[in-house]
């Protein structure tokens, strides 16, 4: 459960009500009326902006929010893990480094050898301390999506004794004008996609030795599999979707979020098999800021306009419940319906869906 | 929305064309791996440095005196067949790697442009070659110019996508050559319209692809060997091209491999860290070329490396990584002499196929050894053996040797056919070197300098190439140069920069007359003291002088005055650097290779009699019982009254008719020195012996006439005692002033195991006991080791005991704990060298530290840095040892010459016994020599070796038992040793 934003939108109940009603029309009219419900805000993206990092990217949205991500990899000694690597680790501890050829078959197989602690994400947002709720939750959501597929951390495995430690530094350059999760995720995606690791020259369990030629460095996410197949892994990307009445709107801006019935963050990764579309790696609901907006007072309940003020809170609630369809602003309450989540996910994941579109767009930046 | 970018553009076409960057991966020692981005600012004011060009003269950067560096390249470069208008040479990296010896030749290869790209590549590939190249660029006569093409905008190129670094660098070289060509052309056009002689800038490369591309781009390029063939004395020059490359071409044909592959660096490092492999320096036994040893920190005793296969292409001196072999392959150290030339006499240098790595005979010799190790076990406990798995660092140097006559196919001098011959190095521990030469006929019978280039898996012997010939075998010049080269003694004349540091007055320099002169500041006037010097006869570099006089209170004032070299040699100037490189003066029989220029060593610093000299004095107040009351250090001015030789001084002291003050002062010194000596011996100082002989030479030709053992007089020990005292006093003072950086000398106590063998030998053969728990115990038990019938026996034991000792070494105080400072041989807690600054660099440093300790002058920064001092110590330790070895080799050579054509019978003693020979020491000539069984009778007599009792029972016609320490009469003749070409003394049993 993500926290609500501290910065509130300064809209009156009447404005909120207007906004909500225009968004719930069919087709919805968004704040930027040129955009449809599935349209993202336009953005400028570039990669390799920080020359001394292993990979970096910057994305600026047209509302002025801008994020910068740098990926740094360092060689680290692995801890001895007796339960995972029982036999082999023991033989190392006994001072007998295994250098024979009998494990040739396993040597290419890193599956399941990666550890969660090998990836560290830090998020910095201007105006927030690093232990404030927003950066911490954003970081943990991004970490979760990166770890969930398990392929990235396995890629960091060098040998039984060494691994790469990946540090991903995410920096929001502007104040968080809208909920920045999607932006940060896309920037991270691009930085990881373009990140390279120095090419390994040593073999097996030797102390790692690397090629000093940076041009020989291998991409963290290889473009094609070693076997030549197209089933390659890509970093996940998180898309933000909100529901207003019957409509589902992607990439909401700050004001739109203020009237959302529900907000969903969906992390998707391209599928391993080329035939099917992207797959969901994690999904989170986000407490929309609309829950915290002040409700409007209907005439019927306002003594100044001839109404009768309710005597107790319970009474007020009952009356509001009855008024819900009248157009008077009432903050949405309650959670999300299962059916809604299903609709959102299918819009994201389906062939030609939002996720595929986003991933292809980001991929195009790197290629073109 | 604005499209601004955070990225700094790297593309040259986006305005910032003078900015580029370089990206690479750096692995640090601690295991970190970093991506490094270096910004590169390209400039246009890097001159071409050709005297033909005026434009560059204007743009060249100026120094603070507003002068530009003078241009290097000649305006009329030498031409050649292909380039008659003259040429500037631009060699690529491989040209330098394979032909460095060529470029160093004085007669050819002038006007060479060394590109920065090439220089950096050479540095990455081979550090020693890089240093030689840098030295070349500083040699004015050769006109080598380093052009920083990577920083000049026109010649900088960025790496294309998918281009390998090598290809990129090749392209950079071509780009630079092209630029140079157009640049020179323009320069000449600007100079005069008439001049037609436009020199070409020629790339020298052996890379076929590079040549092809150069041709396509019409850039002048030529192969190194093609270029050399166009020069005079091409045959000699062609021999100097490294063989490493030829090897490469041959490899495809040769499939047979003799040696296992070396492990990768990362594999070795992992193994060394994990403790499964060990790193150390590979040493080969001088008696047995098949037995190497590697001392590694993990084991007390050295690991043995047996046979060529286990040695795996390591050459003595290399830093290797070894793997210990299983216990059943351990064996005792060899008791057999195995020499290469006796086993592999008939190897053919040309033919390699059909050969096995260990020849049949070698294998037999080894097998006998192993059998022996298993047969007996009480003595000679098996020692761990190991095999070399990889080489961390090659310490190949240039080797002096001679061409093996048997390997030369055609000895005709006129034949210019290239053939493969063996060079047999003088150093027996180094294997034969295969050399390809066109001048085999001429080189026979010459001392030849050669280097090793490579040792491939498919070659039984290393490949090398000829560097130069030193001259006829056995000629004095060649042999002297050979031994200087072998011991790495710098013997070239002092360069001009060094001589420029000398006082301008030259020999006319005098101590200033007026005591107000700055030279007198802080100096005491000791000119009225009756000082004299006592040195070996004919000594011209007089370091030290002494005086003694009675004080009113009945005590004595004793002074040791040392030449004040530090006044003339200031820290960090060219002379100081040269001296610190040389480290010590080297004394050969007929020659002295000075550490400091003659002017200083034999005149200005030397404490010559009758003239005033600057000195550094140590003055003590001493009681008549030779107890020190106080010590005082000062810079001074003295006037020596007389320079005595040891003998003269002794005669004067002994002659009672001399009752002048000077002689009485010497008598006082002698009296005190005897007491000091007794005190030292009481404290446990060792009286060790080494065979010292003196070669008498004819004065004109310095041809040796006779050999004598040196006589020791009382006056020898007089000087010695006071020098020791001065050294100890100065050491204490310097340590007190600079507890971290004082330069001291220590002599570590030898580990017990060193004495094991000698003590066992003494017990078995003579029933004597050698205790080694302290230096006192050693000294006392050495005194007990006498044989009533054989007065020399005690000296023999002392000589053998000396060989069990560690060698003394210089060190920096901060690197050791105080108890480790101890000088074992002198039984002194602390010691340094102070008394011979003319001939030892350590003493000079001690002078500087002492001067600072007494507030005479501030200490130079180089003497305050521990790491710098450690470097100095390391160097002078090596130089010191090499100087000793060179001196000994020189004596050995002259003894050989003195005995040339003689046939004498002399007494000798058996020092060491092998299963097929023994070593005899002849005290009269100070020589020790090996007598092999096969020298006694032909065919080689059978013999039984009793290792436990050190007896060799020779059977057959000879019928004789040889025992350790036995006195034998030997017949001394001389012969030219086949393996090294040295004239050596040959001993045979009578």
From TrEMBL, chain A:
Keyword list (alphabetical) reads: Cytoplasm, Exosome
Q: Among its keywords, does the record have Isomerase?
A: no
Which residues belong to any copy of the Exoribonuclease phosphorolytic domain? 39-198
Single GO MF descriptor: mRNA 3'-UTR AU-rich region binding
Q: Where in the cell is it found?
A: Cytoplasm; Nucleus, Nucleolus
| One GO CC annotation | nucleolus
- Entry's Pfam families? RNase_PH
* Entry coiled-coil feature ranges: none
Q: Cytoplasm as a keyword? A: yes
* Recorded family membership: Belongs to the RNase PH family.
User: What name does this protein carry?
Assistant: Ribosomal RNA-processing protein 42
Per the UniProt entry, what species is this protein from, by scientific name? Periconia digitata
Per the UniProt record, the lineage of the source organism begins with:
Eukaryota, Fungi, Dikarya, Ascomycota, Pezizomycotina
TrEMBL record, chain B:
Keywords (A to Z) from UniProt: Cytoplasm, Endonuclease, Exonuclease, Exosome, Hydrolase, Nuclease, Nucleus, RNA-binding, rRNA processing
An individual GO BP term: nuclear mRNA surveillance of mRNA 3'-end processing
UniProt cofactor(s): Mg(2+)
Q: Which GO terms describe its molecular function?
A: 3'-5'-RNA exonuclease activity; endonuclease activity; RNA binding
Spell out the residue ranges making up region: Disordered.
1-21
Its main localization is cytoplasm
Please state where this protein is localized.
Cytoplasm; Nucleus, Nucleolus
Ranges for domain RNB: 523-856
**Which residues belong to any copy of the PIN domain?**
87-212
| CC terms in the record's Gene Ontology section | cytoplasmic exosome (RNase complex); nuclear exosome (RNase complex); nucleolus
Q: What InterPro entries does the database record attribute to this sequence?
A: Dis3_CSD2, NA-bd_OB-fold, PIN-like_dom_sf, PIN_dom, RNase_II/R, RNase_II/R_CS, RNR_Ribonuclease, Rrp44_CSD1
Q: Which Pfam families match?
A: OB_Dis3, PIN_4, RNB, Rrp44_CSD1, Rrp44_S1
Indicate the family of this protein. Answer: Belongs to the RNR ribonuclease family.
The protein depicted here goes by the name Chromosome disjunction protein 3
In its UniProt entry, the species of origin is given as Periconia digitata
């Amino acid at each position: 459960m993500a926290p609500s934003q501290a910065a509130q939108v300064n809209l009156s109940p009447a404005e909120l009500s207007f906004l909500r009603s225009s968004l719930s029309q069919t087709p919805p009219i968004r704040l930027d009326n040129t955009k449809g419900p599935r349209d993202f805000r336009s953005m400028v993206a570039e990669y390799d902006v920080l020359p001394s990092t292993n990979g970096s990217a910057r994305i600026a949205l047209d509302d002025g929010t801008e994020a910068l991500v740098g990926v740094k990899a360092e060689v680290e000694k692995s801890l001895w893990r007796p339960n995972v690597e029982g036999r082999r680790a023991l033989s190392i501890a006994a001072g007998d480094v295994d250098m024979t050829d009998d494990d040739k078959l396993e040597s290419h197989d890193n599956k399941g050898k990666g550890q969660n602690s090998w990836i560290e994400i830090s998020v910095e947002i201007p105006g927030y301390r690093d232990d404030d709720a927003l950066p911490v939750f954003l970081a943990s959501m991004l970490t979760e999506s990166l770890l969930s597929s398990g392929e990235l951390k396995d890629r960091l495995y060098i040998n039984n004794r060494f691994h790469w430690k990946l540090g991903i530094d995410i920096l929001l350059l502007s104040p968080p004008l809208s909920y920045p999760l999607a932006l940060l995720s896309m920037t991270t995606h691009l930085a990881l996609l373009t990140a390279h690791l120095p090419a390994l020259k040593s073999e097996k369990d030797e102390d790692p030795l690397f090629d000093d030629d940076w041009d020989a460095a291998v991409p963290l996410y290889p473009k094609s599999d070693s076997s030549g197949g197209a089933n390659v892994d890509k970093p996940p990307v998180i898309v933000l979707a909100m529901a207003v009445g019957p409509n589902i709107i992607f990439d909401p801006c700050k004001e739109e979020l203020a009237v959302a019935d529900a907000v969903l963050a969906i992390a998707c990764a391209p599928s391993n098999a080329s035939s099917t579309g992207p797959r969901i790696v994690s999904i989170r609901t986000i407490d929309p800021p609309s829950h915290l907006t002040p409700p409007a007072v209907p005439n019927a309940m306002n003594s100044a306009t001839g109404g009768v003020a309710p005597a107790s809170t319970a009474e007020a609630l009952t009356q509001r419940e009855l008024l819900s369809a009248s157009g008077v602003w009432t903050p949405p309450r309650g959670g999300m319906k299962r059916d809604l989540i299903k609709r959102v996910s299918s819009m994201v994941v389906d062939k030609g869906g939002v996720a595929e579109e986003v991933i292809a767009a980001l991929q195009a930046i790197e290629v073109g | 929305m604005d499209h601004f970018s955070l990225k700094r553009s790297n593309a040259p076409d986006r305005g910032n064309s003078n900015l580029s960057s370089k990206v690479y991966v750096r692995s640090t020692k601690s295991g970190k791996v970093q991506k490094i981005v270096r910004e590169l600012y390209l400039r246009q004011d890097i001159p071409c440095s050709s005297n033909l060009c005026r434009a560059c003269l204007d743009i060249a950067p100026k120094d603070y005196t507003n002068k530009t560096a003078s241009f290097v390249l000649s305006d009329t470069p030498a031409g050649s067949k292909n380039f008659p208008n003259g040429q500037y040479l631009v060699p690529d990296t491989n040209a330098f790697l394979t032909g460095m010896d060529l470029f160093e030749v004085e007669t050819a290869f002038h006007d060479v442009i060394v590109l920065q790209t090439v220089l950096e590549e050479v540095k990455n590939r081979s550090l020693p070659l890089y240093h030689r190249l840098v030295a070349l660029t500083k040699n004015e006569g050769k006109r080598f110019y380093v052009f920083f093409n990577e920083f000049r905008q026109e010649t900088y190129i960025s790496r294309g996508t998918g281009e390998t670094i090598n290809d990129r660098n090749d392209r950079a070289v071509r780009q630079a050559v092209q630029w140079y060509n157009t640049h020179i052309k323009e320069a000449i056009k600007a100079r005069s319209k008439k001049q037609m002689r436009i020199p070409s800038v020629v790339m020298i490369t052996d890379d076929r692809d590079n040549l092809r591309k150069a041709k396509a781009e019409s850039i002048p390029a030529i192969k190194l060997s093609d270029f050399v063939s166009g020069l005079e004395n091409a045959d000699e020059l062609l021999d100097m091209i490294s063989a490493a490359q030829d090897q490469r071409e041959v490899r495809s044909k040769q499939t047979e491999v003799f040696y296992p592959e070396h492990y990768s660096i990362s594999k070795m490092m992992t193994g060394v860290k994990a403790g499964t492999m060990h790193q150390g320096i590979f040493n080969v036994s001088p008696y047995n070329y098949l037995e190497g040893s590697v001392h590694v920190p993990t084991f007390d005793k050295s690991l043995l490396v047996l046979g060529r296969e286990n040695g795996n292409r390591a050459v003595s001196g290399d830093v290797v990584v070894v793997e210990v072999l299983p216990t059943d392959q351990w064996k005792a150290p060899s008791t057999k002499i195995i020499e290469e030339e006796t086993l592999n006499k008939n190897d053919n240098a040309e033919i390699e196929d059909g050969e096995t790595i260990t020849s049949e005979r070698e294998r037999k010799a080894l097998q006998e050894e192993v059998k022996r190790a298993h047969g007996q076990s009480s003595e000679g406990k098996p020692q761990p053996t190991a095999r070399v798995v990889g080489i961390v660092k090659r310490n190949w140097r240039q080797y002096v040797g001679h061409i093996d006559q048997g390997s030369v196919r055609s000895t005709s001098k006129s034949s210019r056919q290239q053939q493969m011959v063996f060079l047999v190095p003088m150093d027996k521990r180094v294997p034969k070197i295969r050399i390809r030469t066109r001048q085999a006929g001429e080189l026979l019978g010459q001392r030849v300098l050669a280097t090793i280039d490579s040792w491939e898996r498919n070659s039984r012997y290393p490949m090398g190439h000829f560097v130069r010939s030193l001259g006829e075998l056995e000629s004095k010049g060649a042999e002297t140069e050979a031994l200087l080269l072998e011991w790495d003694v710098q013997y070239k004349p002092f360069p001009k920069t060094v001589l420029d540091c000398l006082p301008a007055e030259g020999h006319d320099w005098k101590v200033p007359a007026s005591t107000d002169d700055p030279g007198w500041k802080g100096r005491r006037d000791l000119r009225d003291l009756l000082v004299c010097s006592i040195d070996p006869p004919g000594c011209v570099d007089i370091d030290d002088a002494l005086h003694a006089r009675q004080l009113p209170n009945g005590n004595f004032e004793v002074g040791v005055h040392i030449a004040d070299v530090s006044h003339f040699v200031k820290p960090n100037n060219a002379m100081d650097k040269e001296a610190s490189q040389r480290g010590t003066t080297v004394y050969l029989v007929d020659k002295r290779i000075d550490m400091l220029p003659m002017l200083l060593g034999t005149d200005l610093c030397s404490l010559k009699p009758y003239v005033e000299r600057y000195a550094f004095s140590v003055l003590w107040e001493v009681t008549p019982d030779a107890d020190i009351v106080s010590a005082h250090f000062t810079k001074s001015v003295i006037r020596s009254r007389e320079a005595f030789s040891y003998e003269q001084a002794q005669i004067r002291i002994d002659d009672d008719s001399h009752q002048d003050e000077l002689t009485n002062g010497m008598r006082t010194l002698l009296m005190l020195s005897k007491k000091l000596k007794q005190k030292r011996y009481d404290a446990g100082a060792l009286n060790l012996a080494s065979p010292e002989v003196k070669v008498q030479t004819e004065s004109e030709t310095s041809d040796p006439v006779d050999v004598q053992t040196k006589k020791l007089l009382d006056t020898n020990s007089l000087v010695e005692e006071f020098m020791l005292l001065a050294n100890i006093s100065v050491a204490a003072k310097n340590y007190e002033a600079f507890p971290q950086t004082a330069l001291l000398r220590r002599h570590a106590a030898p580990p017990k195991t060193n004495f094991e063998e000698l003590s066992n030998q003494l017990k078995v053969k003579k029933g004597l006991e050698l205790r080694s728990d302290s230096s006192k115990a050693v000294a006392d038990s050495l005194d007990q080791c006498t044989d009533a019938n054989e007065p020399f026996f005690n000296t023999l034991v002392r000589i053998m005991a000396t060989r069990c000792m560690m060698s003394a070494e210089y060190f920096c105080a901060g690197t050791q704990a105080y108890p480790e400072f101890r000088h074992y041989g002198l039984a002194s807690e602390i010691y340094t060298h102070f008394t011979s600054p003319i001939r030892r660099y350590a003493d000079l440093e001690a002078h500087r530290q002492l001067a600072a300790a007494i507030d005479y002058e501030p200490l130079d920064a180089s003497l305050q840095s521990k790491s710098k001092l450690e470097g100095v110590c390391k160097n002078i330790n090596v130089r010191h040892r090499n100087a000793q070895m060179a001196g000994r080799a020189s004596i050995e050579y002259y003894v050989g010459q003195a005995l040339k054509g003689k046939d004498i019978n002399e007494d000798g003693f058996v020092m060491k016994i092998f299963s097929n020979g023994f070593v005899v020491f002849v005290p009269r000539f100070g020589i020790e020599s090996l007598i092999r069984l096969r020298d006694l009778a032909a065919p080689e007599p059978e013999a039984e070796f009793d290792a436990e009792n050190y007896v060799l029972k020779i059977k057959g016609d000879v019928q004789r038992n040889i025992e350790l320490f036995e006195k034998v009469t030997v017949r001394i003749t001389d012969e030219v040793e086949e393996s090294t070409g040295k004239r050596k003394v040959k001993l045979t049993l009578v």
